[in-house]
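User: Watch each token:
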Amino acid sequence: MDTLLLKTFLEVTRTRNFGKASDNLCVAPSTVSARIKQMEQQLGLSLFIRSHHEIGLTPEGERMERHARFIIDAWERAYEDIALNASLNKRLVIAGVSSLWDIFLQEWLSNIYSQMPNVGLRAEESTPLRVVEKLDRGLIDIGFMYEQPKLADFRVEEVKSVKLQLVSSCGNQLPDEAVAKGYVRVEWGTAFNRQHEKLFPQRPLAPVRVNSGRIALELMLSCGGAAYLPEAVVVSLIKEGRLYPVTDAPLIEMRAYAAYSLHGEHYDLIRQLLKLLH
């Protein structure tokens, strides 16, 4: 299938509007409609539910969205591999959950970039589920996450211990007070949830839940509140007096893991690069 059709499908899926999709793709709305019609004819399926006010995905369209993203990712990776091989010895695709980029992956990537100029790099933030899916499909070479993925023929190793600290925009708060009002619950994963439930079994339901420590931090700095955030991220903000540690709040320790194929072409290179984290 033509990747142009897939890219058009994904843009319509993202915007839920043929007109906005055509603007973003710099083509006429009739061209977008024709591409979607052509794609539906090739598949023999309806991908969108069309109405006067909105566009939604059919169940078939929802399944197609996932496959389309992987096809485009695979195509772009193949193109880059071929185009870059003339000037680079190797090319590594790295994915990790957003908070790990803030804690240590950004520095690790910078070290690789400066010390190994002949290694091509592609780096991306992703959700834990997408990291595991891309590993399983061979779309990335190494993935970083908080939970150990259950993947056959993959090496999974602990690379960092991440301490989460309960901090607040208000000083002199106690733990029960911090999690009772203005608490921003960050979904750090199953391991965090188990420890959190044990520490605060009687807490009220958090009014805000996010899946990114960065989102929680920006929300706290703008509007106030409290959240469990990585020590490495909040230490400078505490020194500046912009955030405060919650008195007597227990630390929650998480583990960061790296996963990569036992049979991947970059296995030895990855083992070498992971030593830079220690």
Notes: The mean pLDDT is 89.
